[in-house]
Amino acid sequence: MSLEWSAGAVDPGGDPPSAETWQPIDVPGRPTEFVDAEAVAYRATFEDPRDPAQAHAVLVLEGVYAHARVWLDGELIAEHDAYFEPLRVPLPVGEDNELLVECRRPEDRFGGIYDTDRVPTASSVPGIWWDARIETHPDPYVADLNVAPRVDGESTSVEVEATVVTDEPLDDRLTLSLRPTGEVRGGGMMNRARVDTDAGRATVTHEIDVRDPSLWWPHDVGSQPRYAVRAKLADDERTVETGLRSVSYDESGLLVNGQRVPARGVTLVDGTVEDVRRAVDANANLVRAHAHALSPAVYEACDEQGVLVWQDLPLTGPGGFDADRAAALLERLVWSRRRHPSLAAVSVHDGPIPDYADGLGSGLLDRVRFRWRAWRADYDGAPAGRVADGVTEVPAFPVVGPAGIDPDAATMYPGWTFGEARDAEWLCDRYGLGTVVAAFGAGALANGDDEATDFEGERRAARVDGGVDDSQAMQASVVGTVAETLRRRDADVLAVDTLRDADGAGMGVLAEDGTPKAAFERLQSAYEPTQVLLADPTPGDSEVVLVHDRPTGGLATVEWDVDGDREQTEVEIEAYGRQTVTTIAPPAGSDVTLAVAIDDVVARNRYTV
To answer: For the chain, what is the domain count?
Structure first.
């Protein structure tokens, strides 16, 4: 059942809050009428939604940002403090009912990206962002169904946890079934679990063994089969979908179903469903949710399109945090998303120290200054490490940050905050970075209208003399050079910052409306699973390097063309191989085109030296 809502700005803390004026509003959403409000109340009136066969009414709210309280007919019935976790509230409804939901801005450190200037204020309006509905159920009913895939060598199963609600003592059987969806091969499984409980809520746990499983893979490795898990009790049932996969990380790299999968990623700021398709178009197989939780709809899109998700805890910027609350929130975040096969990694604290590299060049003295500032950088990563220790479902990278604080996942911006893009090589060698990179890149204007904005004004002015075209050319050069450097060095995980601007000009390789900047095509080329790269795209000697991020090797034909002078050779490349093919010496001002063909796949790469 959907509701008709009105809303008004309120002072936080009213019991219940009262708005001076109420205006009709669409829910779910982020009403721009309240961009400056500290708290917004949402009100709906409705009649009893149950029919004679239904004993229970349940309010379901998803994406309640950031803290919330719920009243029914003036009585406080629920509080909530994690927008990524669904809020399910049993409603003691009468014939006529008034529902009131107060949403408040973050009261702690866990607003994440929405509590910063990386997103416009219109994106962080307190509200019900993703879904709002009333469900009705008979008695007894299945209130919640949480599942998690388990793939361990030859053994595959699905862990199931079902929450049952009953008004009367209950002794019954819960039927649990797992069936492939779509064109997935294999049969289904059905199990029964006993439910013996007094009136109230009871949790039933069970594990369904899967015979002849079809495993889920990232899109550049395999297919994305999924399974429907159903829990049925008497006249009620609930169904969710999952995919069968395992994810781990060790000295071999990121492993999906025990097989290495080099991850080429993009960071999302306020990610949307459409961004998943855009990531695939960029040849990315991973998205990093930068200090915010992706909505269930975005996770569904990642499941469908075979894109891995690196999920940050909504915690960013310098400053201490409550480690106990962080651990509880991370546990809840993983729990709420663990059914999704796309969930591949988590991190705890992003950007824990201020930027110390801004304004430094590439000279020897600048590198000395960089080393001095990195040496002086101070951050205690132990609390984040303890928080991450509680995660067992997927790999965890506790600290995301720059050189100098021994990050678990590095952020590096050569060519933007300091030096030149080619300094990525020095950064990796000097500080042992480059294995897991959470963010790299540069900013650029999106169109002529952006030139009047103050986006990174001083930083951009130091890099670019001209307008939009020069700005985008600089960004494309930085993004391509750093991405190729990290791929040549065989990075396990890398992610460019950012896929799409959130507000006018920005770090995105796409404008806010999804229009490509010059860097998008450059990233597409750099992210081709099999690609041939010029190690040093400057005049003089440079190695031609073949990178091959595929699970099988083969015979590749590599071609290089310098101003029309074309040569080629054949190279035997191993799975996930890196191999120098030849050395060329393009003169200044020359156009270099590289190409590789293997197993009916062709990729090209172009440089102006």
So the answer is: 4
**Block residue for tokens 């100098």:** 404
Domain boundary among 242, 272, 307: 242
- Under the banding of pLDDT at 50, 70 and 90, the label for residue 129 is very high
CATH of the domain at 205: 2.60.40.10
- Please state, in angstroms and rounded to a whole number, the distance separating the CA atoms of residues 445 and 443: 7
Q: Is the pLDDT of residue 293 over 50?
A: yes
What are the phi and psi torsion angles at 521 (to 5°)?
-65, -35
Q: Tokens for 361?
A: 């060049």
Nearest to 211 by CA among 148, 161, 272, 154: 154
Do 256 and 398 share a domain, yes or no? yes
Query: H-helix or E-strand containing 412?
Result: none
> CA-CA distance, 345 to 328, in Å (whole number)?
17
Average of per-residue pLDDT across 12-18: 87
Beta strand 263-268 with 308-312: parallel, antiparallel or unpaired? unpaired
Q: Could you tell me if 539 and 426 lie in one domain? A: no
Is the pLDDT confidence value at 13 over 90? no
Mean pLDDT of 464-472: 86
Angle at 565 between CA 559 and CA 569, to 5 degrees: 25
C-alpha span between 499 and 517 (Å, rounded): 10
225 in the same domain as 160:
yes
Strand 236-242: give its sheet, edge to edge: 189-197, 170-180, 227-233, 236-242
Q: Are residues 547 and 507 in the same domain?
A: no
The pTM for the full model equals 0.96
Task: Give the pLDDT mean for 39-46.
Answer: 97
Write down the mean pLDDT value for the chain: 94
Q: Are residues 380 and 400 in the same domain?
A: yes
Are 553 and 461 found together in one domain? no
Residue of 607, 583, 584 whose CA lies nearest to 481: 607
409 in the same domain as 280: yes
User: In this structure, are residues 151 and 122 in contact, taking their beta carbons and an 8 Å threshold?
Assistant: no
Q: End of a domain among 510, 527, 544?
A: 527
Do 352 and 293 form a contact (C-beta atoms < 8 A)?
no
Q: Which residue has the tokens 């721009």?
A: 32
CATH code at 66?
2.60.120.260
Question: What pLDDT is stored for residue 467 in this prediction?
Answer: 84
Per-residue pLDDT of 345-364, as tens digits, reads 999 999 999 999 988 988 89
Same domain, 424 and 539: no
Q: Coil, strand or helix: which one is 39?
A: strand
Percent of the chain past pLDDT 70, that is, above it, reads 97
Domain that holds residue 200: 141-242
- Does the pLDDT value for residue 504 go beyond 90? no
Report d(CA 139, CA 427) in Å as an integer. 62
- Contact status, residue 506 vs residue 513, Cβ threshold 8 Å: no
Structure tokens at 246: 């395992």
pLDDT band for 459, please (50, 70, 90 cuts). Answer: low
Mean pLDDT of 249-275: 97
Report pLDDT for 452: 46
Q: What CATH number does the domain containing 462 carry?
A: 3.20.20.80
Q: Taking a C-beta distance cutoff of 8 angstroms, is the pair 8, 23 a contact?
A: yes
Give the DSSP letter string of 160-223: EEEEEEESS-EEEEEEEEEEE-TT--S--EEEEEEEEE-SEEEEEEEEEE-SS--B---TTTS-
